[in-house]
Amino acid sequence: xDFSYSEEQRQLADSLRRFTEERYPLEARRKANGFSRDxxxxxxxxxxxxxxxxxxxxxxxxxxxxxxxVQFEAGRALLPEPLIPCAVMAAGLIQRYGSEAQRHxxxxxxxxxxxxxxxxxxxxxxxxxxxxxxxxxxxxxDGFLLEGEKVHVWHGxxxxxxxxxxxxxxxxxxxxxxxxSSAAGVxxxxxPTLDGTRDAQVTLNAVRVPTSAxxxxxxxxxxxxxxxxxxxxxxxxxxxxxxxxxxxxxxAEYLSTRKQFGQPLxxxxxxxxxxxxxxxxxxxxxSMAHLAASAIDHPGAVERRRMISSAKxxxxxxxxxxxxxxxxLHGGMGVTAELAVGDYFKSLMVASLRLGDAEFHADVLxxxxxxxxxxxxxx
Length: 379
Known about the structure:
By secondary structure, the protein is an alpha+beta fold. The chain has 3 domains: 7-116, Butyryl-Coa Dehydrogenase, subunit A, domain 1 (Orthogonal Bundle); 118-218, Butyryl-CoA Dehydrogenase, subunit A, domain 2 (Beta Barrel), CATH 2.40.110; 222-367, Butyryl-CoA Dehydrogenase, subunit A, domain 3 (Up-down Bundle), CATH 1.20.140. It is built from 11 helices and 10 strands. Helix 8 (269-295) runs antiparallel to helix 9.
């Protein structure tokens, strides 16, 4: 896959960068508390929210390279809004598996910025396991009755709708449902996260949804959810690569201006070597982010999962290394609000935990079957 930007991708990336630099600086992003309505409208105007949505539903038929270009810039700017959970994961899931009625109902509002949707799939004590949720969806004549609890719902407070995973006894499988956050019996308790965004704990107490809320086939919820998570991981790897790129730029600028013993810190060979090591890790993360994007359309499920998990594992390790080095090279200033380095470090640490941390993806790789002609990309 060719990852050089097309003219349209370059224009979109440049437009997003100009917006963040001129109209949405770091100070404003810090005050946004995880979400800015003005910024969200701008994302819709730029076409970011409808990127993966089909043109017949108001989108732009975007591919993996388009998502990469946008998320790389979003990561460079630490955009706090739910671009990945809504515009990539939820929109991508409905685009692929929703009925025509569901696509018509949900995709145009997402593309236009009128609807925010996120996934609610993690549960207490289950960590990253989503294969057998304790949330249950009992079939009723007029639909389903949902009962359960979800945690770590990414931007759950801002979402008007949730894609909820639940065990469906009638299908003996995991099913996915669109549940309005305002539905009777839905309780959303939001809380701040380390990176300045907000997650939520969602309680479903005898929540009734119609049959039309069921996404795709009742017995294919696990496979559909895995696809959405793969889309999210690829986008998150691109965003982390963008954050690493900007973090190294800031560190190099600081070392060039900060003086010690009458000369810039950048003159000290040992420090230059540390920045070089950071650059190596960034390039490795960037390459793996490209790999994750190329994996999205790979026909083989096992090899696709191998590529996605390898990317998430290596990008997470690179993020920790580069983040820690950046903070140390800034000295005491690295942990103050005066500089942005701390914001980037915290964002990268949270990103490394979302959608499976390094340990989880190492386990995934260890348990995948080795197909003929393939090899493990990470150990």
